[in-house]
Amino acid sequence: MSILGYTYLLLAFISNVHYSYAKPGYETFDKLDDTASTWAQLPDTVDPSTPIELTVYLSQPKEKIKAFEKALIDMSTPGNPSYGKHMAQSQIDAVLQPLTNATDMVQSWLKGEGLSNFVFGNDWIAFNSTIEKTESLLQTTYKQFKSSATNETVIRTLSYSLPVDLHWAVDLIEPTTDFPFRKRKLLQQRADASNSDSHNPKHAHLNQDPSSTSDVTPARLAELYGYDNFKPPEAKSNKIGVLGFQKQIAQESDLALFLTTYAPDKTNASFTCVGAASKGICHQRNKYTGNPKDIKSGEANLDIQYTVTGTYPYENIFYQFGRLSDMKTLNYLLSLDTLPQTLSISWGMEERFMSKRLANKICNKYAQLGARGVSVLVASGDDGVGDESDTRCKKKKGKARVIKFLPEFPSTCPFVTSVGATDLTDHEEASSFSGGGFSWYFDRPEYQNATVNRYVTELGASDIKRNNGYFKPSGRAYPDVTAVGSDYCIINKGVKKCDVLGTSASAPVFASIVTLLNGERLSNGRSSLGFLNPWLYKNLYNAGGLKDIVQGKMEGCLKTKPEGSLGFSAVEGWDPASGLGSPIFKTMRANMS
């Protein structure tokens, strides 16, 4: 599904770019192969004296990473002696120390290049530099790139080199090929687009009168999933965190009106806003104009309004990360002594828009959150298997661009729980826009083998055959679960809207249910659920804790071609259109090991 107002541009070096030539002993270390995005390169050169803060991430022993990932699976699998025995960050850091001598080797290289005043983390070294020094250090050329989505400009490069004898010691360096772009979901486009309750033409069949019983509200969700009569026990330590990016900030005034309108028994509920990218400041009005209506808030308001009402009376924290990179975002969270037991993330980007090296490093950080006892739930995306556009649903292969499905990150990371979307009429069925598919980067994790292999070899055989060559069947499959994602009512900038849709709505709802479960566990002196997937696939699904969605189909590519629309349909069991299914709270609660 296309995102309103977005035109995907090809990043290409223009003719007046000056090229750097590698020093003796240097070889290309990392590059961004597929650069189609909303970032367009500007013709302006970058002032060589421009300051830049660099972070070098150090390599860790592969055997230690594998051992850590196995420990995470063990502590997340009911019945395992290690189940629920989560780790402190100091314990994780002790396991994931950099390779022997990696820190010394990299520091010696940096000092030899005239750099100093280093700041050290467990697996990273940060320092200040200039563009001129950095271009020499990395044998690259930095350029300015502007986002057509946000009008923001960043300084990046598409590839960089390192001395060959340092390749073993370094995982990645940023900022280099990492673009701070998180796709705004369709629902946010509509929520901020106007004050009217208008639908995207593709979803005209969902258009309802604002007072229609088809509207999705907190009360309707609670009744649908069976937690309407649940009384959350006292658990003061239980928290849920919502991650916000770009300029999105949830608004207290909109929440207050939402509570009055849709949850009058919870009007004393609230949230804490943490400006993680702005030294703790979390503006409730535009800092330049002073007008609350100048703030971007549609996505953030949706998330907070449904987590606050879905988890009351537990604490909600909205983290505003601005344009911080994924690595800096996750480093910030992991640096906290106390973390929310549940995190909801409604943002993502196509896997191809980052290097495999970067995706692996970020995914390891998500695994660390799981080991800390945090359940991370992420929206699966709103573009089906790629996009309705025949021109955009393409992946770079050498100099050519070929039709390929475009999986969404971080949903493709095996250590998060990906949430798809359903439409709700008299029953739930898979939404046509719900993102799903198979990763090109990550192999299928063991916990998925039984359910996903059954889909690939039996239940989904016709779709698999029809889509052959467009995806990697052995890749990490997503989404894991699903929830209603259409016709949500929110309050944004004081205006009621009941036409909001997207997996950005589904993820906070499922995360809220997990928060309720965590509250009960913590009140009984038990650990939080932590990384959910082994429990979901190996225990809860077999116990009937998820409603199997067997109707609906997600959108695909080749809309205008004779082959028709490629994509996946909902079938019995796991499928890319609906995952394992939607939540059944009573059964989930009864099957918490």
The total domain count is 2
Total E-strand runs: 29
Q: Supply the CATH superfamily name of the largest domain.
A: Peptidase S8/S53 domain
Backbone CA Rg: 23 Å
Amount of beta strand: 15-25%
Instruction: Please give the count of helices.
Output: 15
Structural category = alpha+beta
Tell me about the largest β-sheet. Answer: 8 strands, mixed
Low-confidence stretches: 1-21, 188-212
Name of the CATH first level of the largest domain: Alpha Beta
Task: Classify the fold: give the CATH topology of the largest domain.
Answer: Rossmann fold
| Overall morphology | globular
How many angstroms separate the termini?
A: 39 Å
The overall pLDDT, averaged over residues, is 87
Residue share in helices?
25-40%
Corresponding CATH architecture of the largest domain: 3-Layer(aba) Sandwich
Detailed description of the structure:
This protein has 593 residues and is of the alpha+beta class. The protein folds into two domains: 9-60 and 98-174, no CATH class; 186-590, Peptidase S8/S53 domain (Rossmann fold, 3-Layer(aba) Sandwich), CATH 3.40.50.200. It has 15 helices and 29 strands. The strands form ten sheets. Strands 12, 13, 14, 15, 17, 21, 22 and 25 form an eight-stranded mixed sheet that branches. A four-stranded antiparallel sheet has the order 6-7-5-11. It has a three-stranded antiparallel sheet with strand order 4-8-9, with no helix packed on it. Helix 8 (298-311) packs parallel to helix 13. The longest helix has 21 residues, at 503-523. The radius of gyration is 23 Å and the shape is globular. Residues 1-21 and 188-212 have low confidence and may be disordered. Residues 190-215 are annotated as: Disordered. InterPro entries: Peptidase_S8/S53_dom_sf, S53_propep, Sedolisin_dom, Tripeptidyl-peptidase_I. Its cofactor is Ca(2+). Keywords: Calcium, Hydrolase, Metal-binding, Protease, Serine protease, Signal, Zymogen. One of its GO terms (cellular component) is extracellular region.
